[in-house]
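It is worth pausing here to work through a concrete case rather than discussing structure prediction in the abstract. The textbook approach is simple: state the sequence, then state the predicted structure, then interpret. We follow exactly that order.
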Amino acid sequence: MNTCYAVFDTALGFAGIAWSDAGVIRFQLPCANAEAARRNLLRRAPAAKLVAPPPLLAQTVDAVRRYFAGEKIDFSGVTLDLAGQDDLFLEIYAAARRVGYGETTTYGGLAKAMGRTDWETARAVGQAMANNPVALIIPCHRVLAAGGKIGGFSAPGGVETKAKMLALEGVKLRPEQRSLGL
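Step two, the predicted structure:
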């Protein structure tokens, strides 16, 4: 199966996307420069070849650009290739994709939306969000820690990037929500 990638500019920096014949396999949130985006993307998709995106992927790239320019975009229709993910993570990612633009939930809230109330699932939600291969398309930035605190974010820029993405969507975090509570 061929794996390809592209790096492109957005209003927040350079992003990257990698795909297979089955769908998007990786998404790199904006970085300061194209080389950083390429390097971060290829770290997780080392066999990918640089090519111009085919029409469906070009539409996704355009949607990402519009999102970071402040337009309300729904990525739930983007076809993903999440081969290799375990069943629980796939269930978590499917639930996260239902959290709409401008909405937030917590790790525990997402677990509850899946019909699970055990703390192990809430913890697994946190792990799945931290390992999300297609951040933004699976909107892990909309999943907050307990009490609505911003929690962590493993993308370039960390929690500041998460806060910027939420602000783009009109989500207003109170000062105590921005705190990592450390």
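Step three, interpretation. The mean pLDDT is 92. The CA atoms of residues 106 and 144 lie 4 Å apart.
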